[in-house]
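Weekly puzzle thread! Below is a chain. First person to post its structure in token form gets bragging rights.
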Amino acid sequence: MTPHAEPDPQAGAAVKAADRAHVFHSWSAQGLIDPLAVAGAEGSYFWDYDGNRYLDFTSGLVYTNIGYQHPRVVEAIQEQAARLTTFAPAFAVDVRSEAARLIAERTPGDLDKIFFTNGGAEAVENAVRMARLHTGRAKVLSAYRSYHGATSTAINLTGDPRRWASDTASAGVVHFWAPFLYRSPFYSSTETEECARALQHLEDTIAFEGPQTVAAIVLETIPGTAGIMTPPPGYLAGVREICDRYGIVFVLDEVMAGFGRTGTWFAAEHYGVVPDLMTFAKGVNSGYVPLGGVAISAEIAATFDKRPYPGGLTYSGHPLACAAAVATIRAMEDEKVVEHAAHIGETVLGPGLRELAERHPSVGEVRGLGAFWALDLVRDRETREPLVPYNAAGEAAAPMAAFGAACKKNGLWPFINMNRTHAVPACNITEAEAKEGLAALDAALSVADEYTA
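Winning reply:
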């Protein structure tokens, strides 16, 4: 695949100049960034105005699960725009109802009612509101090493440094340690130990906070940006049991892990658990039009049968977004994208990344499922010292910056967070494309190796 137009550096310079003059970018010091001007994208690739093409190992922000410019989704958006571009959320609209039906068919258990939002953070925000209203309790527990969004409650739930600047310690959020054997906070040596000790830690946290004060426990089924740490067998089932025992609402955040990313429609399927509320966004329509939502259990939905739910959004269930979701889900079904993600993870990405780990001393651990993988980069495999310090910036982050530059030089756009690089391509990436990405990672890891002990 090649760019669809001749290189046009002058046009690229104009796009970048307008960006720098007027666009305020998220999570950035505005004067220190130099955004790439993108000329186009298709499938697993995008390209700039200079004619450089990149294999996108980030899927945008882990949301283009069916790649860029999928013709069926583009056509569905165009057809919907011609028929009914928008309509208020209080009305029954065919494409909104169909999107909800298709989502509910794929969620586990009785999560059959769908509340639509504009994205993942708003989904988390509303899930917490539902849990608090349903239980009459205020506190919410969430894990360190997590990300739940940038709205008021969601950012306080988040367990990484992006929370710090906005954390007023007044949002009713209590953080705890979830299991992560490679960097265990419980000094565990096996997954069985890590699971048991993490559950005991959670029990102790609830006991000291007061079970009767806790409305919900919010967990990413598989944490995404924080490191793709797959939970040990039995952990999520154990959390489910704890929630049932204390009348706590169990919320699973599947914003990143959902819609085929892990080789199942939702990551919860790997662990045989059904939450009370499940949040989604991103892959629901491959990010083509902003859409998120909360899948709601029958019990919690019944709370609002006669009692109005005090929440809503002007664009809830926007017809263009829902049309994109319907087309995405049907395309994924017809083209067996979920099954393909499982297959590519089992046969290409997983084995390929583990083979890289055997040859590169900078790779401490490989973990993941489907099209959802992380490489934990280290200075020393024995001590597991991260390649860069926690929340490193500036010169302290230089090793990861050098690694990222090497990826881009080799035509791969990497997903980098702290001391990790994530392999999170489109779920329908071809075998050849996946191997191309592995080869580019191989070359870039040689640069990371230069910083090892």
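Puzzle host: Confirmed. Bonus trivia for everyone else. The mean pLDDT is 97.
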